[in-house]
Known about the structure:
Dna Ligase, domain 1; Rossmann fold; alpha/beta; single chain; 48 helices; 1218 residues; 6-stranded antiparallel β-sheet; DNA-binding; Alpha-Beta Plaits; DNA repair protein REV1; disordered N terminus; binds 2'-deoxycytidine-5'-triphosphate
Amino acid sequence: MAPLTWSGSASSDYYDDDPEFLRALGEIEIPEAHVELQHSKPEPPTNEGPSTEATNTRKRARTPEDDDGHQQFQPGMTSIDTGDPESSYLASYTYGASRFGEFSEYMARKRAKLQIQNSELNHGNDQTQKSTIFSGLQIYINGWTEPSVQDLRQLIIRHGGVYHAYLDKKGLVTHIITCSLTPAKIREFKHMKVVQPEWLVESAAAGLLLPWHNYVFRPCERLEASQGKQVAQKSLFDGFVSQSESQHQDKHPSPSVASFNVGSGQPTAPTAGPSRLVTEPRASATPPQSPRKPTPVTPSKPLHTSDPSTPEQAARVPGYAAHTSNPIAQRAMADPAWRAAHTSVAPDFIEGYYRNSRLHHLSTWKAELKNMVLEAQERAEDGGAAVLARLAESDESVVAKIIQENLDGTGFKSAGEGDVSMRGARLEMQHSPKFKGKGKERVVEDNQERVIMHCDFDSFFVSAGLIDRPHLRGKPVVVCHSQGAQGGQSSTSEIASASYEARKFGIKSGMSLQQARKLCPTVLTMPYEFQRYKQLSLQFYTILMAHADDLQAVSVDEALIDVTSSVMRIKSEIAQSQDSSSSPTDPAKDFAEAIRAQVKKVTGCEVSIGIARNIMLARLASRKAKPAGSFHLLPSDISGFLAPLDIDDLHGFGYSARQKAQEKLAATNLGELAQKSKAQLCDALGKGTGETLYKAIRGIDERKLESDKPRKSVSCDVNYGIRFESNEQVETFLYQLAEETARRLDAIDMRGRSLTLKVLKRHPDAPVEAPKFMGHGLCETFTKQGTLIAPGGRATSDPKLIGELSWRLLKSFNFDPGELRGIGVQIQKLEKTSSASTTETGQAILPFKAVESPKRGAGLAATDLDNSHTLGPSPNRPRIVVEPPSQENEETVEGPVKNSVAGAELDLPSFSQVDKSVFEALPEDVRKELENEYKRRSVTPGLGDAIERSRSASLQPLPRPTRKNHRLLVKGTNLKRITQQLAPRNRPSTSVNKGNLFVRGKSAGISSVNVSERELGKLGIDPEVFVQLPADLQREALAQARSAKAPGATVYSQRQVLKPKPKKKQVGLYRAPPPKAKYTDPPSLKQQGKTKGTKLYFTEKEDVQRVIEQWVEGFREYPPNQGDVDFFAKFLVQCVDNGRSSDAGVERAVAVAKWWLILLRRYFGFWEDAQDPDSQVDQEGAATSEAVGRAWWKAFREVKAKMDEVARKRFGGCLSLR
DNA sequence: ATCCTCCCCTAC
DNA sequence: TAAGGTAGGGGAGGAT
Length: 1218
Ligand SMILES: Nc1ccn([C@H]2C[C@H](O)[C@@H](COP(=O)(O)OP(=O)(O)OP(=O)(O)O)O2)c(=O)n1
Ligand SMILES: [Mg+2]
């Protein structure tokens, strides 16, 4: 019976009988024994004096009484609060100058004595009035602004920028600052950098020129924000999406805000509750001795939740299942009005929920940071030379500025190739100037030992909250939603972060407030301040980016950086300047301390840094470094350092791994595990994990920092507050969730082809109301997957389609609405919406190139593309049996069922059943043909499903799958994978967790077919679509596909017009498909291709020309795909814009454009001067030659315009193709 | 041997 | 009152 149960790890967390919790509680008894355990952590304390000292001091200072007192004063603190921001604001002027400048200064001092901190301080003061962070900026302020124009002007000038009262000299103005724009202005400034005033204010406050991109002014967003509508998903790093919550930004600017702020701070005040507490356990005022330090075995991780993951396991936890409902929740739920307003049936439940969910924020921030890092790196790559410059000499400009300004720089020729990636450049640099020389030499990675740093804020949320509550420093404080005494001791509110003082009592993140109160009755609480966390994080990352060769975003408060080159530089400089003498210093550690000081100065919060030769060790080192310190784990100490640790101390190894190790190896200690053979470890934990552990124990971890992995899925989950009474409510909720999901997809410009619905259902043995207020409690989980398809078989982000499919899948479970406790929608098989739109990233990968590659062979071309094979029907075709689709398909999971390819004939699937993904994957022309074919045959099978019907309807058009494959992709390897990915699978796979839950019966999506989905996938046929085709069509499609494929071609996709094209009849089959230059992009491919070093570039003009020729020729009868046009445009623009160090790129771009022009004149010369068609092709579908010609010219003009835009910026004029 | 797919697990 | 989200690594086991 127990299908898949989901454990709620949680449930037990909220009980007092949680084993771990009890243990901690037990240790608390010791009332007065004041220990000075500054390090309650398992590992031996470390740290250097300063931090330790501070810690101790604080500890001692506090007592419950103090807490109360302070709280009482809070109101009074108002003024202080207000002042605080102000002072820091002013401070920015003070030392705001260039932090990087300071760094260079640092270098100098280093040579002399390595007294960074002092130098920074002094230096900072010196420059007080000379901040130059805005130097180079020429700013125009439009309209009314929040900090007034006068204030902004002063700010600009004070920091070295230039203020323009008029916009008459657009050419000079680098940025426009505004809070609002009229439509006309929006148009006028379309091509300029329009930023919000926060950019300047926050940069000044940070003492750094923050990336303006994060403050781009966006009309609509502004609007939303002002309306308070606010999307649930906060696009944090977007700069301002400030919310107007209570916490809101405690911005420095307006006093009113400050006061408001105070209010927010106030919540803490109520905590005055302590007074009452005071009486109670003063005892608790003193932390227990180091919490469970002396455990016989090792302590085991800080996870206070050792939750069972299955009901069975959960059952072992005393009091978990048999429990009765949370009385408070039960009472609340008894009131219909309350339910309507506070549970999942409330109108804006999702939005409000996400806005307050810390975990949601953490996830969102992480994704945004990764993205920002990626973009920054790409930008930097473009300006590789700049990087070199920076490294070469410590410049004094701000990072961002450097990057931008240096683009022009040239000096660095060598980089010569222009295409050299930033990374490579850097490497070269660091090793020493000698290598600078060129390219190839850069060793790919020499054996140089890396210097990795793991940087992490100390109790981040708490530290951030203390900025405005200095009086709470040194006390046991936690951040959680429940504020004040109200929640009292029964609050199930989760603690997000605990101060180090609170940790001494055993309080940890994830614990409920009531548990924490039992451990420490005087614990104080602070509210969340999401906006602030985001800002601090931005400052933190900005600093790290300036010093790192590479950076991996781990979390808002955490990042891994590779500082190998910087450390090397420091070493060499030291060596040069002062020979042998200096000795004992550790450049890496000094560097880390410099970074810590910088972050502290800018953010006011402590960051700890762990340094080691690899990621794993750096993480361990940072733990030892905390709080407020740095620790360099030297090679010689690794062994001794690791031995006493436990397996779950290693990142990536948690409760489960520990259990397995204990059960199968009878040991969890690394020292003991070190005795085990690799085989033993693999046997216990699995191959890969076993090997990872084996190496980890020996201090080995060769992983590189990752910062460019493409996103693979986007999902929305709500497993809190889910309480429905009817199916209508569930449906409504699900559609809202689908909308949220769609928004997230759109936000990153992606669409998907696959959807997985996840459902949490109350476990039969669990109480109706979970222990955690409105929580999900112990549940069973179910997932079901379905193919998401838009009309043309394309990937989609349409909320309706997502909602429809989700609802369909959910209905298929037939669950009682009242039993649902969680719902999640995940979209997979993602692709970028427009290939070229946004980012400019990597582009130079031409998809085109692949086409040629066959010849050139290079490994890259794995694809073989095209060969246009004709597709003949192939001899043996398997048959696909189609069953009527039912909506849900749940049927049994007969997963494998259907496909046996044996047969010889097949029925064509109905359109809706053909896997859209596959379908999409087909070359556009092929797809069109297929559509036509379907249309012609008017197939639409009758699947009863309305959805399907609609789907097929939309799909309509094309018939036959002919394929040609042209693929292009870059990285062969991926091709295959992608192809498969595209392939469909259809049926929703339900993962059932135990079977009975499913209702079976309905027909499933595909029913049985004799062709396997996999094959369909390989053939580029979407199973879903396929299934719905009439048998004869299926047969035909398969035959064609197979024959086409025979040559081993891969099919690619393209998206395109859905309209049927009139072209010649549907014809028989495919006409030779035009060679397309397309590139479809399964984004993943593209991105991956870009992985370091693998980019493909058009290195030779000829290559490009050949590709273009094929493209134009192949599409002589069709208008070009917008995606191809965009891609091409992107490529050309990049050529023009890139490689600032030489004109090679421009020349190439011009040559290519000329060639294109020639080709167009050759084929469509007649329409060169025709006006835009607009009416595109068809209506009737017929793409007249005229329409085609116009479309091509339109594309040309579009691309030329983009090139000129860039050229104008760079050279001041348009490009001449004469 | 390689691939998927469908989970579980982990982290913040 | 509270806001238990999410993306990606990897294993098990089936298909190819
Ligand atoms: N279960 C958790 C774990 C973390 N966080 C949030 C709050 C933390 O402040 C932030 C960073 O997590 P860390 O693990 O880095 O913990 P802290 O920064 O609080 O403490 P430290 O890094 O000093 O151990 O993430 C959370 O909300 N819930
Ligand atoms: Mg932290």
